[in-house]
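**Entry details**
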Amino acid sequence: MSPLHFLILFLLLSLPITCFSESVSAEDADIPKPIEKPDVMSSEYRAFWNDQIQSEIDARIEKFRKADATVVLTNVKPGSEVQIEQIGHEFLFGAHIFNFDQLGSDDLNAKYKELYGTLFNSATIAFYWKTFEPEPGKTRFQGAYEDSAEFWNQQSDPKSQPHWRRPATDPVVAFCESKGIQMNGHTIIWGNRKWQHPDWLPKDPDQIAEMEKLFEKRIKELAEYYQGRLNRWDVVNESATDYRLQKTGKLEQNDAFHQNSSYGLMPADYAFQAFQTAKAAFPETVQFNINEYAVDDFYADQVQNLIDRGCRIDLVGVQMHLFNPQETLDIAAGKNIQTPEIQKKRLSAADQTGKPLHLSEITITAPNDNEKGRAIQAEVARNLYRYWFSWPSMIGITWWNVVDDCGAPGEPSTSGLFTRQMEPKPSFFALNQLINEEWKTRLSFQAESDSVEYRFRGFKGTYRIRWINRDGTEKSMEMIVH
């Protein structure tokens, strides 16, 4: 059996069964058994994630991620089975899709794409300005030969290509639309010259007005081209450090037109200007995100300041990157890193904004590319996902690098859910177990009469109801539980 057939078979066998079922039990169902793994976590780590913490997480999941629902049917064949199956999550389980058609073979590309619509219902699409518009006016909306699978399949050193991890956007958007995947555009305005700013963007203080015009042009161009096709946009990325430095007097604003940001020269008050331009340019149906790794009271204050001045910010992005393999080893050893208490502190700070939160970028590195390292990654991922899923204001989690050795330069090579050859790692099975088994509701019952009113409590999302009419025909409908 090929790895792709194995993955597809696993996902098919992983149809969720929950304790709500009246006629199907987990013991009787033909589902994969838990994967045996070595006990790699210290007693100190388990003390942080103790039974009381786990019970609190379970209680929050029950309270905030489930809802009561009623199924009402008529003309049902008495004695027949009615099936209620959750087919989609309200919660966003996402990943970036930066390696679209870039993995070097049709087989690997197919496995990668299969994840979107099975494990992931949301995708972050790369709009980094530097590679999106490498020359003035030459935008990479439409794919060229250099964006095709055929081109990438011929590359012996794909990382040497300037558009590695930066596919043309139209083919990715069309793919996501075909699979019903929600989309997040990342990112419109970011001060980082290394990764974001094109080489041709003005850099001198006397050209700041031209830079500001180009910022405005970029926002309007993206809005006009895609309208409401992408659900969400990261309008401004990682600007809280500048706000913090200004507030503490460590960053001087030179005049009314420009500032020395932590990245270099930027237009004054660029975050405010970007959100105001976006509000005027995009449809109201599009959600605006602000995205940040430095999550603290200063970040919350920045968001509130922008809102108070008339900016529309719909979601507050929170990042969590364990880039250093030693950090993950230290977590397993029981050091005070990304513990439940630290999660509570960071998320509570972001909650001061009163806006829904999105774990917009997460990285959990396997400290070693061996059985122990992969088992550590899986256990850390499982506990953190459970905590984040239980947080009341959280609307989604986005894993960053899905495939090993496909990160940006300087990022760890073992932070994927899959090896470079798209072989699933324990971290994939851990997340699939949660997303497609534990956190999905599937149940059935026997109709006692031709009129059915059945109440249940299930995870929020889209459901398919199937039953048999009195005349013996099979019927189905969909409903949303929220």
